[in-house]
Amino acid sequence: MLHITVPDDFPAVLATSVVFPALSDRATLDYFDTLPGSEDKLIERIAQAEAVLNIRSSSRFTARVFGACPRLRLLSVWGTGTDHIDLDAAARTGVTVTNTPGVSARSIAEHALALLFAVARRIPALDQATRGGQWPRGSGVQLYRKTCGVIGYGAVGKRFAELVTGIGMDVKVWTLHPERYPGMSFADLDDIYDTSDVLSVHLRLSPQTTGMIGAPQFERMKNSAILINTARGAIVDEAALVAALTSGQIGGAGLDVFTEEPLSGRNPLLALENVVLTPHCAGITPEALEAGLRMAVENIWDWEENS
Question: Is 162 designated active site?
Fold first, then answer.
């Protein structure tokens, strides 16, 4: 039987999934419902595994990890992002890496739209004021006919563009890979910064995208602009974002992702009233969760049958 290790199911999502029994029935399974917490502990947990089912991106698969686990042949990732994996090292050591693209796209796009409404209409602040006996009026922003810049046109970016088009926003799209969309016209990135009332980020984290939105970009944006980020925190220079939000350089932000996760209690974003924060949960609806976990497990079986 294939030896599979799940090193990091915390908080537990896999153990409560309908696909979990198949792992026990079909493989020798080592399952951990805590985070490894260190590279050494991760190595200790997966040292005997032929396949690893990775749940959390906080488990970092470095060249040292791959080198210390010579039995490892497959790393099946629940999720789209692989920025926590040294893909070159995986290739050098003969480890196949799979992920679950697209399964959370609708969920993440809906969450991005929810963040946009929450920021534009100041829903959390109005809810708190109303519960406190106040009756504030007229503080929301109408989105109809406003311009929405969508940075990144993968599965999530496409779906988000459809959603904001549906509420009557004028959409401008930029992508790193325009060659993938022959015949489609994309906006210039600087034009998106200059003209957008809303800027929504839908990119993978890579050396090319790390820190790509920082002080120079915020300086170009309208002082009423809203930034939405459900992609990866490190795409945005967080210190520059805090400065822009504090000074009024931009109007607000809706964030599901952060440079450091979970958020430290000292993070200055927590003190800002023009920000709505959620805990990197955009892609975790019951429907998306089950679909993604099912694909991650099926990727293991497909690899086993074809290897």
Answer: no
Residue ranges per structural domain of the chain:
2-103+286-306, 105-277
Q: Is 261 noted as a catalytic residue in this protein?
A: yes
- What is the overall mean pLDDT for the chain? 96
Closest of 17, 19, 35 to residue 27, by C-alpha: 19
Going by pLDDT thresholds of 50, 70 and 90, the confidence category of residue 139 is: confident
Which of 280, 290, 298, 304 does the annotation list as catalytic? Answer: 280
What's the confidence (pLDDT) of residue 80? 87
pLDDT at 192: 98
Has 84 been annotated as catalytic? no
Domain 2-103+286-306 class in CATH: alpha beta
List the CATH code of the domain at 105-277.
3.40.50.720
| Residue 307 confidence (pLDDT) | 85
Catalytic-role residue among 204, 220, 261, 298: 261
